[in-house]
Amino acid sequence: MQHAVLVNEQHAKPREARQVTYFCRLCRNYGIKTRKAHLQNHHNANRDTVTKRSNDDLVNVIFIESR
Question: Are 67 and 22 in contact (CB under 8 A)?
């Protein structure tokens, strides 16, 4: 039994191609890789506030994927 060779095979991408970067609506900064760390370091957000699961929607609203 022969198998057809796939022309468009799924190869592992390099790390930079896999990494999603974000745009921050608060400071209008591009190229952010870690959203929660950015909020803590640049916008003085409390760690407990940022890591709560109920505030995950807020983090999603502040950041937009900018790839």
Answer: no
d(CA 59, CA 66): 15
Q: Indicate the length of the chain as a whole number.
A: 67
In the structure, what pLDDT confidence band is assigned to residue 63 with cuts at 50, 70 and 90? very high
Say which amino acid occupies 23. F
Can you name the residues that pair with 24 across neighbouring β-strands?
29, 63
The pTM for the full model equals 0.71
Run of H or E residues at 62: helix 56-62
- Nearest one of 31, 29, 54 to 43, comparing CA atoms: 29
Alpha-carbon distance values, 63 to 2, 6, 10, 13 (Å):
48, 37, 29, 24
